[in-house]
Amino acid sequence: MELKQLESFVAVIKYGSFTKAAQVLYMSQPSISTHIRALEKHLDTPLIIRTTKQIRITPRGRELYNTATAMLKMRDDLLTKWHHEDSNEIIISSSTIPSIYLLPQVLKGFRKLFPDIPFTINQDVSSKVLNSLLKGHIQVGFTGMKVDDDSLEFVPVAIDKMVVITPNTPTFRQLVGTKNAALHILMKYPLILRDKGSGSKAHVDRIFEKLHLTPDKLHVTAHLNEPEGLKNLVINQVGVSVISEPAVVQAVADGTLLKFELPKDTALRQLYMVYHKHDTQSSHVKQFINYVKSFSWQQKDD
């Protein structure tokens, strides 16, 4: 049983046609048929029932399809990982807040030292950044959350602060400067929060826990996967929210949002650079990791 045979089999099932499978794999249709027959002979079982109008997969064919799909994905993931290791390019994935407010500063300084190193940067929620790192799809991640995994190295690089935001209306303006305003707002008004999987959402959950804001005391009206949409909903008086302070500096300065401080021991969270401890890293990736480590110390000293 060869990978080429499995590729042909998976393509026939996926596209429902020997002809289409041959086109996608840049092979002849007789070659595809030969691969399927060889598989069936090797496994001593029919995998596909052919008729003049359609093909139908047998139960054992379905089992093989699921296993073969997983095997081919593992191969592709491995080849992608090796390609990244051999390439001069640095593949980064970052959660929203680090990608918008931290990475530009980091890359600006790094590019001055190493102007010829190319980057590919993707943005996703923290949980998916970590998943991509574990699968070898990326080389370095930036997140707003930390997990217990011995294979990952988390390096603190910056401190982020969460604040409560409201629309700039008379109702909320009269609360500015009053004691426990943030707590009062969270308990009384509809809440708009980030989706699960984001570092911001995980930290907001911890804030609620520390403030003893159980679900029965909150009125969550919507979840969003990015902060810009969340801010716009608050500006348009759909509800209030808890968000990273750097994301709302301009809106507060423009007067479209009001900001209320949370207790300091609940508001602050750590942002991390994360990489796989046991990966064989290129010299360029090592240079970038070492630069970010020094950058994080510079931030603390400023």
Automatic annotation (TrEMBL):
A molecular-function term among this protein's GO annotations: DNA-binding transcription factor activity
Q: Which InterPro entries match?
A: LysR-like_Sec_metab, LysR_HTH_N, LysR_subst-bd, WH-like_DNA-bd_sf, WH_DNA-bd_sf
Cited Gene3D superfamilies: 3.40.190.290, Winged helix-like DNA-binding domain superfamily/Winged helix DNA-binding domain
State the signal peptide span: none
Question: Could you tell me the superkingdom of the organism this chain comes from?
Answer: Bacteria
The record, for Pfam families, names: HTH_1 (PF00126), LysR_substrate (PF03466)
- Please provide the record's keywords in A-Z order: DNA-binding, Transcription, Transcription regulation
Domain HTH lysR-type stretches: 1-58
Sorted alphabetically, which PANTHER family does this protein's record hold?
Answer: HTH-TYPE TRANSCRIPTIONAL REGULATOR, HTH-TYPE TRANSCRIPTIONAL REGULATOR GLTR
Q: What is stated as this protein's family in its record? A: Belongs to the LysR transcriptional regulatory family.
What is the name listed in the Swiss-Prot or TrEMBL entry for this protein? LysR substrate binding domain protein
